[in-house]
Design goal:
Number of helices: 14
Number of domains: 1
Radius of gyration: 21 Å
Largest sheet: 3 strands, antiparallel
Distance between the termini: 28 Å
Length: 371
């Protein structure tokens, strides 16, 4: 497929995910919205506003010159770090976590912007450090330091899931940039050890692990949410109960329109619906990485790989949680779940993927010389 055909195919996948997500958000949130706001359309209207804002910002990104986009990566990472610090001081605390700024009826999550800014910055940094990437101190350490700083601030919120995705994307970019295998393996070992310490050092994280291993041990406590997700998926069967037919959304399954929206899709559209979603994300990954392979410019190649991996990893973690293959973690399903900041940033990420594919090949020679 040509780059143009790849972009067209990816756009169709994106529209499918947004479409099925909008229907699922409406179906899964109507009763909750009616109960909380007296308006059954509240959440789906907010969802559509987020899509509109994301599309507008995506259009603005497409209009920014490619060189200016790369030059702005340093300002973006500085801004994201400032917001991550500020949210720890002035953010709204919900359930013991400070992850959000509350502006009237709007809620903003700086970690979503930080993920995007980190990928853009790492793509620029690794492109500039291409000549030193085989050296740990000059090539690898700067990327590890910036990633560690961002992920560390996110961990303080606390948000282990987002911090883990940040680290995983950074590892992938180091591999794509041709860092030495021993450097990458050493970092993976250190990250795995740190992850074990973080999980075992917090009681609520240990409870999630135990619930993951045996949810029936505490069916009305730590295992409740995953068991309700199982019931939803099992009830859907092959073709589902039909749109609007979910029983679990009747206040049985927490986070039905956010983190566990795939369970509602499975209940209402059955195995056919969940398989369609899985295939769409698989196509997103295949098309995205194929686009990256055709980009000559290092920055564009790394940027595309990082953004595709970011969205793909979030999707895999969410799907793993909903199906019981991973411990429960509050990550939304990209491009489908209700969540304003997440939706906006994901749409901006998709716009940058399209832009890198379109402009990266044209600037490949000049970009390589500049690097």
């Amino acid at each position: 497929m040509t780059p143009t055909q790849l972009r067209q195919s990816l756009l169709l996948v994106l529209l499918f995910l947004l479409g099925i997500g909008t229907v699922a958000v409406y179906s899964s949130s109507t009763l909750a919205a009616e109960f909380a706001y007296g308006d059954g359309f509240h959440f789906v209207k907010q969802h559509l506003v987020a899509i509109g804002c994301g599309a507008a910002l995506a259009g603005a990104c497409l209009a920014v010159p490619y060189a200016r986009l790369r030059a702005g990566s340093r300002w973006a990472i500085l801004l994201s770090l400032a917001l991550l610090v500020l949210v720890l001081v002035a953010g709204q605390e919900i359930g013991g976590a400070r992850r959000w700024f509350r502006l009237g009826r709007l809620s903003l999550q700086p970690s979503e912007f930080a993920q995007l800014a980190l990928v853009v910055y790492l793509a620029d940094l690794l492109a500039r450090k291409a000549g030193f990437i085989r050296e740990f101190r000059k090539g690898v350490l700067p990327a590890v330091a910036v990633t560690g700083l961002c992920a560390g601030l996110v961990l303080l919120q606390p948000d282990l899931g987002t911090a883990t995705v940040m680290g995983a994307v950074a590892m992938l970019l180091l591999i794509v940039a041709n860092a030495k295998p021993q450097h990458v393996l050493g970092l993976l070992g250190a990250a795995a050890a740190l992850l074990v310490v973080l999980i075992m050092g917090a009681e609520y994280r240990r409870r999630r692990i135990f619930a993951f291993l045996d949810p029936w041990n505490d069916p009305y406590g730590s295992g409740y949410q995953i068991l309700q997700s199982y019931f939803a998926l099992a009830s859907g069967g092959l073709i589902g109960l039909g749109v609007g037919g979910s029983v679990q959304k009747l206040f049985y399954l927490p986070s039905a329109h956010t983190d566990f929206i795939l369970a509602i899709i499975g209940e209402e559209l059955g195995l056919v619906g969940t398989t369609a979603v899985l295939l769409a994300f698989a196509l997103f990954l295949i098309l995205g990485f194929r686009m990256a392979m055709l980009i000559e410019d290092r920055f564009g190649k790394y940027l595309t790989c990082g953004l595709v991996a970011m969205i793909g990893l979030e999707a895999m973690v969410n799907i793993g949680v909903v199906t019981g293959m991973l411990p429960t973690k509050g990550l939304p399903l990209p491009l489908i779940s209700y969540g304003g900041t997440s939706m906006v940033m994901n749409l901006v990420a998709c716009a940058l993927i399209f832009k890198a594919s379109h402009d990266g090949a044209r600037t490949g020679i000049s970009g390589a010389l500049r690097d």
